[in-house]
Design a protein that fits this description.
Blueprint lengths: L3 H18 L7 H8 L24 H18 L18 E2 L5 E5 L4 H6 L5 H13 L8 E4 L13 H18 L3 E5 L1 H8 L5 H4 L3 E4 L2 E6 L2 H6 L4 H14 L7
Parallel strand pairs: 2-3, 2-4, 4-6
Antiparallel strand pairs: 1-3, 5-6
Helix pairs in contact: 3-6
The structure holds iron/sulfur cluster.
């Protein structure tokens, strides 16, 4: 039986043969437009939910120690990092904190004022809200790992510049390599665009799992945004429930 695709292929071949027969070697744009409607449009890529990974697994003491040592070595290599202009305005370099073999890792954009002073990621009001989100997901802050795209505070909390992100990114990539989380939550546009190397807006990205080197990465809003737009909390709760699902956790009624 002749399929629609076969018929389209034959029609395109006939159109191309016609132009070749009249001596046209390169097709002008108008001609390509004439045949383009014959080519079936590619199916848009459907995001797929990752398989259920199951309950977080306890870390072997040896693995815990090894990862802890590797993270410590990475921090030592960074030293008093001056690799980008953000070094000039920081008080403290904010490396990251949490479980060195966490199954779940949260990634934000960069330290804010309080983080810069305390040397820890996600402290202050946005940090409290993130802690509540983590707890609602039936994790504790000690069980997960939290880090940022850039480790030094951008002045006036501006977005980090692309060259600053590029310079700092290898540190985060190495943290992920060491920790080997089984899922990521990317908090906000800058975190998602920088790690996934895309320019898609947050509204289009959030709520679906993306792939980061084989690790499912859920994109959602940044807690600081939720402080300004409390109505979006419901959306974030829907997003993170998808993460809970892949860990076999059920939201409590
Ligand atoms: S933001 Fe990153 S690359 Fe820039 S100075 Fe801080 S640690 Fe170094």
């Amino acid at each position: 039986m002749t399929t629609v695709t076969d018929r389209l292929k034959r029609e395109i071949a006939q159109a191309l043969e016609f132009y070749a027969n009249i001596g046209v070697e390169r097709l002008p744009i108008q001609v390509l437009k004439e045949v383009e409607h014959l080519v079936p449009a590619a199916e848009p890529e459907q995001p797929t939910a990752p398989q259920v990974i199951g309950e977080p697994e306890p870390c072997e003491p040896e693995t815990f120690k090894t990862n802890q040592r590797k993270l410590y070595e990475l921090r030592s290599q960074m030293g008093n990092c001056q690799r980008c202009r953000l070094a000039a305005g920081r008080t403290t370099l904010v490396f990251g904190s949490g479980n060195p073999c966490a199954d779940l890792m949260f990634i934000g954009e960069g330290p804010g004022r309080e983080e810069d002073l305390k040397g820890l990621p996600f402290v202050g009001a946005a940090g409290d809200l993130l802690t509540r989100i983590i707890n609602a997901m039936q994790f504790t802050r000690d069980e997960v790992y939290i880090a940022n795209i850039v480790k030094c505070r951008p002045p006036q909390n501006r977005d980090p510049e692309p060259d600053e992100v590029d310079t700092c990114m290898s540190f985060l990539e190495r943290q992920i390599e060491i920790i080997q989380p089984r899922a990521l939550v990317l908090l906000g546009r800058v975190a998602a665009q920088s790690l996934l190397r895309v320019s898609t807006g947050i509204t289009a990205m959030r709520g679906t799992f993306k792939d980061y080197k084989g690790i499912p990465a859920m994109v959602t809003y940044h807690p600081a945004y939720l402080l300004r737009n409390p109505k979006a909390k419901k959306t974030v709760w829907e997003d993170v429930q998808q993460v809970m699902k892949i860990f076999g956790k059920k939201a409590l009624d």
